[in-house]
Design goal:
Elements lengths: L1 H39 L6 H14 L5 H13 L6 H15 L6 H17 L3 H17 L3 H17 L3 H18 L2 H17 L3 H17 L3 H17 L3 H17 L3 H17 L3 H12 L7 H17 L3 H17 L3 H18 L2 H100 L9 H18 L3 E8 L2 H8 L1 H18 L5 E4 L4 E7 L3 H17 L13 E7 L6 H17 L5 E3 L2 H6 L6
Parallel strand pairs: 4-5
Antiparallel strand pairs: 1-3, 1-4, 2-3
Bound molecules: guanosine-5'-triphosphate.
Protein name: diguanylate cyclase
InterPro entries: Diguanylate_Cyclase (IPR050469), GGDEF_dom (IPR000160), Nucleotide_cyclase (IPR029787), Rev_trsase/Diguanyl_cyclase (IPR043128), TPR-like_helical_dom_sf (IPR011990), TPR_rpt (IPR019734)
EC number: 2.7.7.65
Length: 636
């Protein structure tokens, strides 16, 4: 029984161990995935912390775990340095190498293309970047990954917006915005919102831009990201200026410039001074504008073409107001060159207005008229552009509902896929647990069945065995007797029985006690069993009465056997059991006759035994003289 208990205990242990191994494994993979998520969501932003996390992922990921190996490869791609064009170009080469891996799945390929495009743009190759972004968006939709679609469309939107291609830019950026917000990816959502707001500003919708910028500023300030909040402030100032709300613009410019001064970022402050001067001049605050431009001039050089061009324009406007048209014209020429180099039409249009006024101040009416014509042409071009942009805006806004619907569908699909995956994983664990449980139950049932069979066998043995002598009991030997008779009849062979009984056993009990009587019976049983062949059977059929079955044995042979037994018993020394104890037996022998029934055979043996007793005991009597003559086996 203790073995059985041990077995159950070990079964329970196996289940517990298996479950805890599965648990530990899942925990480990969970931690790996959580770390991936953190890095990808930009929840970890310190470069050193990112490198450390990637190193620990490298150590933890099994090299046969392909999905995670590929996820790590994508992370490696994005983690390349690109603070110079040279480094960005090296990152493109690295991305190319990763893209060459034949084990890449579609999702990985899409992400690596995006990564290569990103570094191509930083390396000054916007066309390559756009081609990669296009391909990446296509693949991201194929694999229906909302995260990747958001990334690809955000990056593509930014580049399209920069190139002035507003319709597709807004569609990309709005889609990415919905997705990032739905996925709860805050850092990327804010990043994308900045692009979106700037696109609206560039596109001629400063009100919408300001609405987004204000959301961003609030968010950045609440997160303590003051540099980012200040960058947004300067965008707000520019948007107000575009709306001709110069007082508001100035308020934001001042706030921004003060921040960069106190943060010891003089170049950033200088660029704000340039932008600020335009609003100051429009507000009639010329001396302050002059003072700010003087400060800016110390740091803003020709390579900062965007600011340099406006700096020259504003300086020219001041020179003109101060009645110095020659100086103004020289400044205008420098500014014009810079505006042309960056193809800034809006700046050029403003510059040509000042140029026309300057020529007029110089009395050169012809050139003044020419400049005015150029200004008109530029203005018309800008107007037309604005018109087509308005149409674009209408279309994009109209399409917003469609984009939102598409995104909802996409996210729903993603949610379903994740749900299915979860169920699949749970099912696997369930299958494993069920298998283990079934095995354990089978083992337990087998042990039970085995034990039960053993017990039944024992019960049967006990039911057929005499408890004292361990010989077959009456039921057993009678059943065997019937079988032997049937077999003998079938085979036409002889069969005999000896029925023997201890003599005056009552006296033994009375004189020596019941215990001694028991022991004497055991000696008698052992003696009889020892005398017999394997095919014979001795059984105890009553208190001190025994039966011997002798298949294939004639009456005469049986008589001899009975005599041998009688003699053996008579010779047995029983002083070991009790001094002076001796025991004899009387036996009746009968052999299978015409009647051919076991009970008839027994009756005749019983009759012979009765005769042996009557004749004085300690003797063997064969069943009547007729039987000897009639016994066919006797002739064998
Ligand atoms: N010790 C012991 N005695 C038993 C057992 N079974 C029966 N007896 C006794 O055996 C005795 C049989 O007595 P009887 O039937 O009178 O026969 P007997 O004394 O042997 O006389 P004969 O058979 O005529 O020689 C009885 O006293 C029973 O109590 C047993 O298992 N153990």
């Amino acid at each position: 029984m203790s073995l059985f208990r041990q077995f159950i205990a070990s079964g329970v242990l196996v289940i517990t161990a298996l479950l805890s191994v599965a648990d530990a494994l899942a925990m480990n993979l969970d931690e790996i995935d959580q770390l991936f998520d953190k890095i990808e969501r930009a929840d970890i932003s310190e470069p050193q912390a990112i490198n450390d996390s990637i190193a620990s992922l490298e150590a933890a990921i099994d090299k046969d775990d392909l999905p995670r190996v590929l996820r790590l490869s994508r992370l490696h791609c994005w983690n390349q340095e690109a603070d110079t064009e040279k480094k960005a170009a090296a990152a493109v080469v690295y991305a190319n190498k990763l893209l060459g891996d034949p084990k890449n799945d579609t999702l990985t390929r899409a992400d690596l293309l995006l990564c290569r495009g990103y570094f191509s743009r930083l390396a000054g190759r916007p066309k390559d970047a756009l081609a990669d972004y296009d391909e990446s968006v296509k693949l991201a939709y194929q694999v229906e990954s909302p995260r990747l679609i958001a990334d690809a469309r955000s990056l593509r939107g930014a580049i399209l917006s920069f190139e002035g291609n507003f319709s597709p830019a807004l569609e990309d950026l709005i889609t990415a915005q919905h997705l990032y917000e739905s996925l709860g990816m805050e850092v990327w959502s804010l990043n994308n919102l900045t692009e979106l707001a700037t696109s609206y500003r560039r596109f001629g919708d400063p009100q919408t831009a300001i609405r987004y910028y204000r959301q961003l500023e609030e968010k950045y300030r609440s997160q303590g990201e003051f540099n980012a909040a200040t960058l947004v402030n300067s965008e707000i100032a520019m948007a107000y200026e575009a709306m001709n709300e110069n007082a508001m613009a100035l308020e934001y410019y001042r706030k921004t410039a003060d921040y960069w001064e106190s943060a010891n970022e003089p170049l950033a402050a200088a660029s704000i001074y340039v932008n600020m001067s335009g609003a100051l001049i429009k507000q009639g605050l010329v001396p302050e504008a002059k003072q700010k431009l003087a400060k800016a001039e110390q740091l803003i050089k020709i390579e900062h073409a965007g600011f340099y061009s406006f700096m020259k324009l504003y300086q020219a406007q001041i020179a003109l107001q101060e009645n110095q048209p020659d100086k103004a014209l020289a400044l205008i020429n420098e500014g014009e060159e810079a505006f042309n180099s960056i193809q800034n039409k809006r700046g050029l249009a403003e510059l040509y207005t000042t140029k026309s006024q300057t020529f007029a101040a110089l009395g050169d009416w012809h050139s003044a008229y020419g400049a005015l014509e150029t200004q008109n042409r530029l203005q018309n071009e800008l107007q037309n552009q604005l018109q087509s942009q308005r149409t674009t805006e209408m279309r994009t806004r109209f399409d917003t509902d469609r984009m939102a619907n598409e995104n909802r569908q996409l996210l729903e699909n993603q949610r379903l896929k994740e749900h299915e995956l979860k169920i699949l994983q749970q099912n696997k664990l369930l299958q494993l647990t069920t298998m283990v449980l079934v095995l354990v139950i089978l083992a337990i049932v087998s042990v039970f069945a085995y034990k039960q069979a053993q017990r039944s066998k024992l019960m049967e043995h006990l039911a057929l065995t005499d408890f004292l002598t361990k010989l077959p009991n009456r039921r057993h030997i009678y059943r065997r007797g019937e079988l032997c008779v049937q077999q003998a009849k079938k085979q036409q062979s002889a069969m005999s029985v000896i029925l023997f009984d201890a003599d005056h056993f009552k006296k033994v009990n009375d004189h020596y006690g019941h215990d001694v009587g028991d022991k004497a019976l055991v000696v008698l049983a052992d003696c009889a069993a020892a005398q017999m062949r394997k095919t014979d059977m001795v059984g105890r059929i009553g208190g001190e009465e025994f039966l011997v079955l002798l298949p294939g044995t004639s009456l005469a042979q049986a008589g001899e056997i009975a005599e041998r037994l009688r003699k053996a018993m008579d010779d047995t020394d029983m002083n070991d059991i009790s001094t002076g104890l001796s025991l004899t037996i009387s036996a009746g022998v009968a052999s299978l006759d015409k009647d051919k029934s076991f009970s008839a055979l027994l009756n005749r043996a019983d009759h012979a035994l009765y005769q042996a007793k009557a004749a004085g005991r300690n003797q063997v009597v064969l069943d009547g003289p007729h039987s000897l003559a009639a016994d066919p086996a006797a002739e064998i």
